Fold each of these.
Amino acid sequence: MKQLKTLLFLMVAICLIISCGRSETASKGDSLKKGKTKMVTLPFDVTATGNYTYVGPDTFPTPKCVEPLNIWRGIVDGKGTGTPVGDFTVHFDFCGDSLSFYGNTDAYMALSDGDTLFVSGAGRVLDGRLNDHPAFVVSYWRDPFVILGGTGKYEGASGEIVTDDYNSADDPYSHHHWKGTITMKKGKR
């Protein structure tokens, strides 16, 4: 009888150890699934056309520019498409000086699914064109921009892009070509 009690006690102990080990493993697996987000780095390649909705003194709609970039202000709204964002509308609000330097850029891309991606940059608009530009280019800028995060699937996003943008003699628009990388959450929300 003593051997039977010892055997039963041993079996209960083994069952308890096994069940505790399983629940601990399951809870660790659940926390990995719930608490961790995998980030991926993807190519970023977009094109857009913008309409200058305001270029002039920094009074529209309220002053935002600070010295030395407080001589003029530009606001551009447009549309574009690209990878990985798809179709989007774009808004730029930036400041400039008398030497065509620009900065204090507030810019965002609003995507068709409702998510928003924030970008910022600074540089200089140069007169003329480069050899690889179309003949109708009258001024251009090739400057680094950074991705500052966003909403939805772009929350916490980061990245670096280089602009290849220009103004045209054929139309009143700004033309934007951005390439680089974006690091963002894997999958969709």
Amino acid sequence: MADTSLLISGGINIGNKVRLYYDSVTNEAGIQVKLTNKSGGNSVKGYIVTASDGTNRAFKNCVINSPDIIGVVAEAGIADGSECWVWMSGSICQVYYIGNTTRGYFARNLVTADGGSAGQAIAEALPSSPFATDKHFQEIGHLLESRVGAGLALTNTHFN
């Protein structure tokens, strides 16, 4: 059977706050929503975020030890208080990791013992002690790409 799908690099907007997006360079694909950046600084591509507690329809960087992840920042350099595209659960997108990643590994928010900064992620084979259950509730998905050192890696996202 012939592939009759339409390949579109870029987005299909639904209004001006939601889009189905595909990037042929990074291989990111999925659903993005536009939310206000309330991280306190410019947005950082790949940072994991949670809902802002001070502004409606806004995000802030997810703090360490938090299970409340709602998305992944899609754009870098968007000023605090401005609207920014954010990847939603189920998307395949680049996430910022504090160290090496391995395809197939579990991806999660940081716990205190990991080091790193708010908004960054870590990869491990499986949630390990201590706090294996807590780590599971901070899961953000599974790695689709291996890399050496800190930086962006393609991740199939889902937020527990």
